[in-house]
């Protein structure tokens, strides 16, 4: 029976020897559980929950076929029977929930973060300090055998298939393009020689596992690097892979070193599906499309337009393991949508911390963040309906406590109400929609437009204070001048801002305000042509790698100067995987960035600063203060003084850069324990 709202999404996919129950792939993500203590049990819990949540097929994080292919020393690999045995707990757990799972085989090549990395040629990657060794012909042949052995062991471990990682700039991709393959033997030179490596791997794997085993190949369909593949070359490789025995081709977008955003929030939803759609005309096997598909409506549209046969969602399964079941049951308003912030998933992986999710701290911590049994039902008051207050209230109410949530404002969301207006942060609307629905479902009593004092809270068993932050005062002489605005006046009160602006402070808020002021109100955030034009991507694919060279300078409505006191790179504290995007986006809009300054005074002419011992005047219409925040602890202190049991969470506890990730995690933990 076809599903009424999403008939294409819930149509099974028949591969001949096996059938997938729907068209959703949970894409591969390295989470850090692969190397964690008790990692296999944790991965089993993590993947089983997603299988239970309705994923049609799951792909694991990358597993190396030999130690030289490690992402970093002692990373996960599949090279012997004892390894296969350990994986059994994962495959058993997924199958018990009615799911299917493939293991991804990934050889890092020159992206391996260790001194023994190998590559087709001895060329260092810009994102890695280690220079790889050039592979000998013998080593290449041995590596092909290692892929086949790894796949055979995956089958023994109970996996339903393997995905061969041939994109994102890892080893196979390094063989394919001239940019990294300077060889002149049978594995280099002409394109036919350069694609021999992936084709030989696929043939060897197919022979090792037989015909009744899913073989996915993740093909780089848009390299986004200079000297990448041309469209004709990619099509040729796709056709050869089909002949060699691949069941499904997955779309890979961009190398890790590419300077085009591919997965951050500012990337429009399903921005790269046009690439998969082009390939649909060229091969007969099913194609998976990927990147920024985070809601069922988007997925259904792609499938019904015939742009792909399956959609890959990776991070959306971190945000909500039940995204597919909720879609099938018509509970879309209950989906905890991925906001593509990368703060707890990718940024963690790059820092060697186990991944999680800003909007769902239980992700990858399924065995640790578990609700403690309810001892007694408590009558709890929560003050502040920002991210921390919302997460605590709904989680505590779900557990069975009676919760009343107060906020002085007329809407829930706290600082998220400012964030959602920033161009490229529109996904925050989804988080607020999710919490609104959760308040309704968990029967939290919500009291908006209500400012409370300690006396109002005396009848509750315990009080949770989530009153957030107040802006830090930079104490600049003359800051009472009418030219001066706080970020709250700009983002919340929408006070008019002139054409020449100085922004004081270059943390997350300074960057947000700059983004906000350099975009026109009427810019369409879903305009793919404009997005790709700005980042120099050639949608006609007439250039190698699909990039046309330099990003475009965009006509900005205002001339902005951003300033920070400290030396060093501006926005150094922004996320590792997103900071460069914000910096480049503002550069594309001609924002001037000045570091290592001291602020002298403000008067009717503008802002006086001293830089390198010289005083200068920046003539502006407005000066906007974004000089950080301080925790707002006043209510907490008076509640404690009145002798009541109180907890402090979120920004009120610690006002680091607007850190919703910490706030939501701390709130969730407290709610599970209370």
Automatic annotation (TrEMBL):
Record flagged with keyword Flavoprotein: yes
Domain NADH:flavin oxidoreductase/NADH oxidase N-terminal: 9-334
Domain FAD/NAD(P)-binding residues, every copy: 379-636
Metal-binding is among the record's keywords: yes
Cofactor: FMN; [4Fe-4S] cluster
Keyword tags: Flavoprotein, FMN, Iron, Iron-sulfur, Metal-binding, Oxidoreductase
Gene3D superfamilies, sorted: Aldolase class I, FAD/NAD(P)-binding domain, NAD(P)-binding Rossmann-like Domain
A Pfam family that the UniProt record links to this protein: Oxidored_FMN
Enzyme Commission identifier(s): 1.3.1.34
Molecular function via GO: 2,4-dienoyl-CoA reductase (NADPH) activity; FMN binding; iron-sulfur cluster binding; metal ion binding
Family: In the N-terminal section; belongs to the NADH:flavin oxidoreductase/NADH oxidase family.
Name recorded for this polypeptide: NADPH-dependent 2,4-dienoyl-CoA reductase
Species of provenance: Marivirga arenosa
């Amino acid at each position: 029976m076809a599903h009424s709202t999403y008939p294409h999404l819930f149509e099974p996919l028949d591969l001949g020897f096996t059938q997938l129950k729907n068209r959703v792939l949970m894409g591969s993500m390295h989470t850090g559980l692969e190397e964690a203590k008790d990692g296999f049990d944790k991965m089993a819990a993590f993947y089983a929950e997603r299988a239970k949540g309705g994923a049609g097929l799951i792909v694991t994080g990358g597993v190396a076929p030999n130690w030289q292919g490690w992402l970093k020393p002692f990373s996960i690999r599949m090279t012997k029977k004892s390894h296969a045995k350990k994986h059994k707990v994962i495959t058993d757990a997924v199958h018990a929930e009615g799911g299917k799972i493939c293991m991804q085989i990934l050889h890092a090549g020159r992206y391996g973060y260790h001194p023994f990395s190998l590559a087709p040629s001895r060329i260092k990657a810009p994102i890695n300090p280690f220079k790889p060794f050039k592979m000998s012909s013998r080593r290449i042949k041995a590596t092909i055998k290692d892929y086949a052995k790894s796949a055979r062991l995956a089958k023994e471990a109970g996996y339903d298939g393997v995905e061969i990682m041939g994109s994102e700039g890892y080893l196979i991709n390094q063989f394919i393009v001239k940019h990294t393959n300077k060889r002149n033997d049978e594995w280099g030179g002409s394109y036919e020689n350069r694609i021999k490596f992936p084709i030989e791997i696929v043939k060897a794997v197919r022979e090792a596992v037989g015909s009744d085993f899913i073989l996915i190949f993740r093909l780089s369909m848009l390299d986004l690097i200079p000297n990448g593949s041309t469209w004709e070359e990619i099509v040729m490789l796709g056709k050869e892979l089909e002949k060699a025995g691949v069941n499904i081709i997955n779309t890979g977008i961009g190398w890790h070193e590419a300077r085009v955003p591919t997965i951050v929030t500012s990337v429009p939803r399903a921005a790269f599906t046009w690439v998969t759609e082009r390939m649909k005309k060229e091969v007969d096997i099913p194609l998976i499309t990927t990147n920024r598909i985070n809601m069922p409506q988007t997925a259904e549209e792609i499938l019904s337009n015939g742009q792909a046969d399956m959609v890959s969602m990776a991070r959306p399964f971190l945000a909500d393991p039940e995204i597919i079941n909720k879609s099938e049951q018509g509970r879309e308003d209950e989906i905890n949508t991925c906001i593509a912030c990368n703060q707890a998933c990718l940024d963690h992986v790059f820092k060697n911390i186990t991944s999680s999710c800003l909007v769902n701290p239980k992700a990858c911590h399924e065995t640790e963040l578990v609700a403690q049994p309810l001892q007694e039902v408590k009558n709890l008051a929560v003050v502040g309906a920002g991210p921390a207050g919302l997460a605590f209230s709904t989680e505590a109410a779900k557990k069975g406590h009676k919760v009343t949530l107060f906020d002085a404002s007329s809407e829930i969301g706290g600082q998220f109400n400012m964030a959602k207006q920033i161009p490229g942060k529109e996904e925050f609307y989804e988080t607020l929609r999710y919490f609104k629905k959760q308040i309704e479902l968990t029967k939290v009593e919500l009291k908006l437009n209500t400012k409370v004092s300690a006396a109002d809270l005396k009848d509750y068993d315990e009080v949770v204070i989530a009153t957030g932050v107040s802006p830090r005062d930079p104490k600049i002489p003359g800051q009472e001048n009418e030219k001066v605005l706080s970020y709250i006046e700009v983002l919340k009160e929408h006070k008019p801002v002139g054409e020449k602006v100085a922004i004081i402070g270059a943390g997350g808020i300074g960057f947000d305000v700059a983004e906000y002021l350099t975009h026109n109100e009427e810019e369409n955030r879903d305009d793919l042509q404009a997005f790709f034009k700005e980042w120099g991507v050639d949608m006609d694919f007439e250039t190698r790698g699909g990039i046309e060279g330099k990003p475009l300078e965009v006509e900005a409505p205002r001339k902005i100067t951003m300033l920070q006191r400290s030396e060093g790179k501006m926005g150094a504290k922004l996320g590792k995987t997103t900071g460069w995007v914000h910096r480049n986006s503002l550069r594309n809009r001609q924002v001037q960035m000045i570091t290592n300054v001291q602020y002298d005074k403000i008067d009717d002419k503008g802002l006086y600063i001293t830089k390198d011992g010289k005083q200068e005047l920046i003539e502006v219409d407005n000066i906007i203060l974004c000089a950080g925040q301080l925790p707002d602890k006043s209510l907490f202190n008076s509640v404690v003084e009145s002798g009541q049991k109180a907890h402090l969470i979120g920004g009120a506890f610690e006002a680091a850069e607007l850190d919703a990730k910490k706030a939501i995690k701390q709130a969730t933990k407290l709610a599970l324990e209370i």
